Amino acid sequence: MIKVRLLVLIMFVGILSSSWVGAEEEKGVDELQAELNLSQIKLKRISDQKDALSKEYNACVIERDKNAENIKQLTISINQKEDEKAKIQQDAKKEIDGIKKQLADAMDEGINLQAQLKEKMQVVKDKNAEIGTLNTRLSSEKEQSAIQQKDLQAQQGKLQKEIDGLTATLKEKENTIVKVEGQMTTIGNQLKEISATLEKYKTDEVQTAALKENLNKEKDAVQQSSIEMAKIKAESTALNNQLTERLNQLMKGIVPEEIKKEQNQKQLDYAKRLNSMKLKEINAYTIMELERYVANYLGSENSDEIQFAVGQLYEDGKKYNEAAAVYAKLICIWTTGTFVSKAKGKIRDMEKAKKITKKFSQKLLSLSCEGESRKREEKWFNYIKQLFTIVNTSLYPYIDHELDEFLRCYPIVFDAYQVKVQNLLRMKNQEYLAIATYVKTIQLYPNQPQIAQVYFEIGRIFDTIKDYQNAVSFYQDGVAKFPDNTNAPKYLLESARIWANKLKNANKAIKSYETIIAAYPKSEQSPVALFELGRLFEQLKRYEQVIEAYNRIVKEYPQSSIAPLVLITIGECYEKISDYEQAANSYSQLYQQYPKDSRTPEMLYRAGQLQEDNLNSLDKAIEIYQLILKNFADNSYAKKAEGRIKKLTK
């Protein structure tokens, strides 16, 4: 291509030269000189083009050589790739042969596994047979339990017979009292007759003395009868009190101490026997039964032994964190004794074996129940509260189980319900169960001062799970039942926000905001409620009500951080209803009340524009512009104000 261009240039030069020679003969000297100069210029340009083309040609040659070298390198690389390909094919063939061998081995292993599977199936059959045996044992245990129940019923019948006997004895005593009272009445009548006789025979001293003697004897007899009657009454009262106490105990479900001891021993024997069987298949059931014994008989002298056995069962099931927690409970509640020392050793052993972390072990061993004077049930709850603060996610279900057992035995401990809810809320997807626990708390403690916060917490949980209707319901119920609670305006504001933003019910939102403003004017939520009420009115394009609400903020809460903003909004609302004079006044008021606010220069400039464009008051506009120049010289609106002044004063 470059050669062709060079040939064309040479031919062009030749043609120009021949043209020039032919024309030379016909033209004058001056003309020829001018053409010569022009031709020389053209020749120079052509020469320059020639040099440029030559350089381009040389560059192309260099690039050609470079491409040739690259082609050579690519050829070498392709040959190398071919060699690598052949090697890879060879390696792949070897690998395929190896896989075939492994497949054959795997088939042999599969045959062996089938044989093992048959053996396992046989083991499963044997296990099923063992389970059947266990079921039989369990049935037997149930029968024994039924027998125990019958024994208890028989003892209750025996007690009833005793009560019936006491009732009969009481009736006999009452009949005796009636008889004695009859005798006393008879004696009284006799005394009256004797007195009449004495009056009749006063004159006869001998008879009188005899009669006196008889009278004294009768008096002694009457006194003796009174003493016996008092004893009978005392015995009757004691029997009556004893009978009443027994009846009250039975009505309240209180089992007499001797029966309680007997039941305790039977339950203890059952727990020990069940634990001694060491059946992995019912490990969880055994743990449940032993924990139930500890909870029911916390004050028993054997409860620490059973608690220790529970920890061992958790260890057998490889639930080491739970086992450590159970041992810590033993240490915390019983504080001294053989099993306390063993429990501490168990925790340290699990730490050494790295079954629990060192940090968790140290925290468990540092749990304290604050002295030994506390009751065991108090120590139990104190243990739960401390454990709540140190465990990780894996032990949340264990704490929930502990709280359920504690509340089953002591259902009137208000704080236990609070801890249970907090534990449920940090577990996954347990919000509704937390709400149910809170609702139960409300039913048990309707007049407790803390119940107000329970209402609000239920509302907050419903709000979190986006059940807004129930959230509003509990917020408002809490405020209605406890209007003097310090958090009442806070949650009433939350209720208003849900009505406005989530449920899109403007009327109920407005009512809630107005309730806060009217009922809690001194609360920190009151100016916020006014602001949000105004914003809601603005969305509804009810600008007069926006102005009314926001003017209250400026008047009643001038130090509020939102006051400058609401003044600007008041001005904008006046503009929307075409009251430009009030709009300008609002913008000017911002300068008067909040001169240091960053938006003041802009709003003053807007006031000047309104005076100029809408109110045709040029003097006031100039006055406002000059105010901007004087007080905000470094602000961008000062330059704009200066421009307006120049235009208006021309």
Automatic annotation (TrEMBL):
A Pfam family it matches: TPR_16
Record's keyword annotation contains DNA repair: no
TPR repeats: 452-485, 527-560, 564-597
UniProt cross-references to InterPro entries, sorted A to Z: TPR-like_helical_dom_sf, TPR_rpt
Top-rank taxon: Bacteria
This protein's record includes keyword Iron-sulfur: no
Keywords: Coiled coil, Signal, TPR repeat
Signal sequence, renumbered to the chain: 1-23
Coiled coil: 29-109, 156-183
Protein name, UniProt field: Uncharacterized protein
